[in-house]
Amino acid sequence: MTTDKYYITEVDRDNTSIYCHHDLMGELLIPPHTHLKAQFLYVEGGIAYVKTQKNTYFLPARHYMWIPPGVEHSIHPNSEDVMMRNLYFPVEKNDLDFYDEEGIYPVNDLLLNLLLFTNRWKGNLQPDNRNYVIAKALKVLLPEVSGTNLSLSLPIAKDSRLIKVTDYIANHLSDNITFSGLANQFGLSTRTLHRIFVKDMGMSFIQFFTISRMLKAVELLQNKEMQVSDVALAVGYNSLPSFSNTFYRILRQRPSEYANGRNILE
Fold first, then answer.
1. Which of 14, 75, 93, 146 could bond 105 through an S-S bridge, CB–CB 3.0 to 4.6 Å?
2. C-alpha angle 139/19/16, rounded to 5°?
3. DSSP labels, 28-47
4. What global pTM score does this model have?
């Protein structure tokens, strides 16, 4: 790992400051690392996958990820041109339980405007600095305005049989895959496949398949090259209302709302 990157050398240098870093990714991988501070990560102009030891998170535009201190993670954007906005917060003894859990949340207009205010900040914000107070206000607001932790993560398969199954699902999201057909294709009984799904992934096949489809839909909507109806078909939904309802259940907004949402840079 390169040791001169800011997230290795600078973030934790001052344990009392809030560290701010906004920039283009400039690379397709930020390798595994940890911080003593908690991280607020927001991206726009693309998407990013954030991998921890247990899960792969999908971070789309207009959402943020909260990464508690000490959680090893790597970041994988879909383009070097993805804009990444980071605020790193020192741990405080009176922090709420909210800050102990990694998760992904939608960004509302209030948070967007606060992030826009931080646009030119870089480096350490000291407690006696006005900008520190503004950044601290953003952190304090998070539990109040973030709502439900979204299910935008997929566990990483470890069972060799399941790795083949999940790879197949990823490449056939538009197909009408049935559980019995999937089990038969890979020489497994439905009972065995269900057991290893739950044991290895902590979720059922239908949960995994549905979330995989919605994450792909987010990626297609982000590209703004397809109509919502075409995106629905691309991820296996012949019914637009059914697709819209499923998308809303997972992302708490309609696909049309997501496709028309604004970014800070717009």
1. 146
2. 85
3. S-EEEE--SSEEEEEEESS-
4. 0.78
CA separation, residue 150 to residues 40, 105, 106, 186, 191 (Å): 15, 6, 8, 31, 29
* Of residues 15, 56, 22, 58, the one with CA closest to residue 40: 22
115 pLDDT band, cuts 50/70/90, is confident
Contact yes or no for 252/91 (Cβ under 8 A):
no
Q: Give the sign of the dihedral formed by CA 223, CA 59, CA 14, CA 126.
A: positive
Q: What is the DSSP letter of 224?
A: T
DSSP 8-state code for residue 70? T
Kindly state the DSSP code that residue 194 receives in the 8-state scheme: H
d(CA 36, CA 58): 23
